[in-house]
Design goal:
single chain, alpha/beta, TIM Barrel, nine-stranded mixed sheet, 11 helices, 21 strands, binds pyridoxal-5'-phosphate
Length: about 425
């Protein structure tokens, strides 16, 4: 954490309190250098150990077009989960061949959109394969399958995307069937994929996934006669949210994953496929914070500091019980001296950012920085309670750029229509 001579939190080379004053709160502040550092750290850790390696940024973590452009500039590809994400990625400058579409319960018109966009399609069910085959010329479409390898992990039950309870992917036992159907239909089969969960800070689930996925690839390759161009082990690389949590040792993790990956590729005669990973959180998670201003200090049965953001702005604490570290941006070098609940501005009991958080003495007007808010924060925001979504600014060294304008209350009525019969003087 950087603090200036005024005792204010510094983001890049910019005073967070000045940002809050200039752009108002709530405000997402994203540090471009951190995104680039995170990308390069994880890319280099794998790339130096295995040359045929690619990152597909899982953009549902944060789809702001400026962030997409930064990752395009770094040489990343994209993991897209919806037609909207394909569209944003194309507008950001990614080529169709750099985008893998991993949809879940997708409609036919969404599959058509993916085909017309020319992206590769990662198929989640046999139903999807059959439907896709009817609406395209399979010989022109590149596909892979998402397999559920019965390995799951994650920071919360909702974030475990492999294993028996998961709605994602094709069961292991159906993998051979799925690939042979696809082959008979004439698709261009490129790869095999899994994504086991999110927020994983321990190497072992990844190693189990590599182990399981390569084993399935072996069976498919033998029984169906397919040579895989790539093996995609998904994302899920965690970040520490609590100050005392250790960072993921990415060098050690990459070393272990590549060891197992190479060993299995040799053992199972899989040749020399590309290895893809799909980090989202790891790349953008710690690159942003949410600035919000304390407007109410009150003591009822507990002591509360009420702020001008709510779970419509940042939902992770309410949805997953997640911890987000909070820094008082205008008192960044003061010692904690009280325990206080930080409460949002929505009419919902669950709208609490933190309970019993130890902070310096809070006063109305203080600026709080809710840290590690780059992933699954703005992208999960809503207008609940009819509160407009906040602005986003991008900081690069001492430069600040608005990358999303603040919504106004007028935007709340965007796309809403009053039937004529409800208008005054209208026909009943
Ligand atoms: C969400 C998702 C990811 C990224 O997960 P992180 O935990 O942010 O790394 C990767 N792949 C797929 C298919 C996803 O749905």
């Amino acid at each position: 954490m950087k603090i200036n001579e005024k005792g204010h939190l510094v983001i890049g080379e910019v005073d967070a309190v000045e940002l809050a004053e200039k752009y108002d709160t709530p405000l997402y502040v994203i540090d471009e250098n951190k995104i680039r550092e995170n990308y390069r750290r994880i890319y280099n850790a794998f790339k130096k150990r295995y040359d045929k390696f690619k990152i597909l940024y899982a953009c549902k973590a944060n789809t702001n077009i400026a962030i997409m452009k930064i990752l395009n500039d770094e040489g990343s590809g994209i993991d897209a989960v919806s037609p909207g994400e394909i569209y944003i990625a194309l507008v950001a400058g990614f080529k169709p061949e750099e985008i893998l579409f991993t949809g879940n319960n997708v409609r036919n018109d969404e599959l058509e959109f993916a085909v017309e966009s020319g992206v590769m399609i990662n198929i989640d069910s046999i139903s999807q394969l059959k439907r896709l085959s009817k609406l395209c010329n399979p010989e022109e479409v590149e596909i892979s399958f998402r397999i559920n390898p019965l390995v799951g992990a994650g920071h919360h039950e909702h974030c475990i995307t492999g294993g028996e309870m998961s709605k994602f992917g094709i069961a292991e036992k159906d993998a051979v069937k799925a690939y042979s159907m696809a082959k008979n239909l004439g698709f261009k089969i490129k790869g095999i994929h899994c994504h086991i969960g999110s927020g994983i800070l321990d190497p072992s689930p990844f190693l189990m996934a590599v182990d399981a996925l390569t084993k399935i690839a072996e069976r498919v390759s033998k029984e169906v006669g397919i040579e895989f161009e790539f093996i995609d082990i998904g994302g899920g690389f965690g970040i520490p949210y609590k100050p005392e949590e250790p960072e993921l040792n990415i060098e050690n993790l990459a070393k272990k994953i590549i060891e197992v990956f190479k060993e299995r590729c040799d053992e199972y005669n899989l040749g020399n496929p590309w290895l893809y990973i799909e980090p989202g959180r790891y790349i953008v998670g710690n690159a942003a914070c949410l600035l919000t201003r304390v407007n109410t200090i009150k003591k009822s049965y507990r002591k509360f500091a009420g702020v001008d953001a709510g779970f419509n702005t940042l939902i992770r604490p309410a949805m997953y019980g997640s911890y987000h570290h909070i820094i008082v941006a205008n008192k960044a070098n003061e010692e904690p001296c009280e325990k206080i609940d930080i409460a949002g501005n929505l009419c919902e009991s669950g709208d609490i950012f933190a309970r019993d958080r130890e902070l310096p003495k809070l006063e109305e007007g203080d600026i709080l920085a809710i840290m590690d808010a780059g992933a699954y924060c703005f992208s999960m925001s809503s207008q609940y309670n009819s509160r407009p979504r906040p602005a986003e600014v991008l900081v690069k060294d001492d430069k600040v750029s608005i990358i999303r304008e603040r919504e106004s209350i007028i935007d709340l009525l965007d796309k809403q229509v009053i039937p004529a019969r409800l208008l005054k003087g209208g026909k009943k």
